[in-house]
Structure formats: C-alpha cells, structure tokens
C-alpha cells in the first residue's frame, strides 16, 4: 500500500488532487492511503508519523519553495505543483516530479509513474546489492 500526503492550503484543490491520486492508483491496481494537510507545520508532523512513500506539495509561490526545501530532508519522493516555474529549483532539490499548475489528471499520472519508477529502482538496487553480497560473501 502506498502512503501519500497531499499538502495544499486550497481545500478544493487538495480534494481534487486527492481524487486524481485515488483514481490513478485504482486504475493502476495500487492501493493507496492519502492524508491531506494545509501547511508546513502540519506536513512535517505527518511525515514524521507516517513515513510516506510520496509527498505532493501544491503550494503557490515562494511558500511552496520553502516547503519543498524543508520537506526534502524528511521525505524521499516529492511531487511539486506550483503557479510559478520553479523547474530549475526542483531539479536542484532532487524533486521526483515538478509541473506548473493547473493540476490535471495526466500530470498526476506522470508524477505517480515517476515515483513508482523511482521506488522500483531503489528496491531493485537493494535486491541487487543483497544478491551480490550473497553470491560474493561466500568466497571468503
């Protein structure tokens, strides 16, 4: 099961984004649990308690940049939607997916696919490391 946190101060936009994530995951056959929050303080608490697989931040302007800068220290896979073009900053902050608003279902699908791809790469690299250790560890 995927654990996702959606951070957006606009309640209507947060609900729309949550519905997109639920529908995309349902179509992909992935079970998902989604929590919502409105600001950095609430997000930080939820990240520490839930250890999410993905955090989606849809805050506008510099507030979104501030949240992303702080959240990247607590969570691995971050998706960022903003009203301004922070593409370069998103790249420098190693954000898994960035897009300018408006938020659409195809953008959410691409974001989820990218995060799932990253998760599979990590799991496969871990398995490969264990497998290599298992094979080479016996040669001592």
Radius of gyration: 16 Å
Strand order in space, largest sheet = 2-1-3-4-5
Percent helix range: 55-70%
The average pLDDT value, as a whole number, equals 84
Characterize the main sheet: 5 strands, parallel
Q: Number of DSSP helices?
A: 5
Distance between the termini: 39 Å
Give the tally of β-strands.
5
Spell out the helices and strands N to C.
EHEHEHEHEH
As residue ranges, the low-confidence spans are 129-140
Structural class: alpha/beta
Percent of residues in beta strands: 15-25%
Shape: globular
Short structural description:
The chain is α/β, with parallel strands linked by helices. Helices cover 56% and strands 18% of the residues.
Topology (SSEs and partners):
Blueprint: E1 2-7, H1 11-28, E2 32-37, H2 40-50, E3 54-57, H3 61-71, E4 78-82, H4 87-92, E5 97-100, H5 105-136
Parallel strand pairs: 1-2, 1-3, 3-4, 4-5
Helix pairs in contact: 1-5
């Amino acid at each position: 099961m995927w654990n996702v946190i959606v951070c957006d101060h606009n309640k209507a936009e947060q609900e729309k984004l949550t519905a997109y994530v639920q529908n995309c995951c349902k179509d992909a056959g992935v079970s998902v649990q989604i929590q919502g929050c409105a600001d950095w303080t609430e997000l930080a608490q939820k990240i520490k308690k839930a250890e999410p697989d993905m955090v989606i931040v849809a805050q506008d302007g510099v507030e979104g940049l501030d949240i992303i800068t702080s959240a990247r220290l607590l969570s691995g896979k971050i998706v960022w939607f903003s009203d301004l073009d922070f593409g370069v900053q998103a790249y420098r902050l190693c954000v898994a997916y960035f897009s300018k608003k408006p938020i659409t279902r195809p953008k959410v699908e691409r974001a989820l696919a990218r995060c799932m791809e990253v998760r599979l790469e990590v799991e496969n690299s871990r398995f490969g490391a264990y497998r290599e250790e298992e094979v080479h560890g016996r040669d001592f």
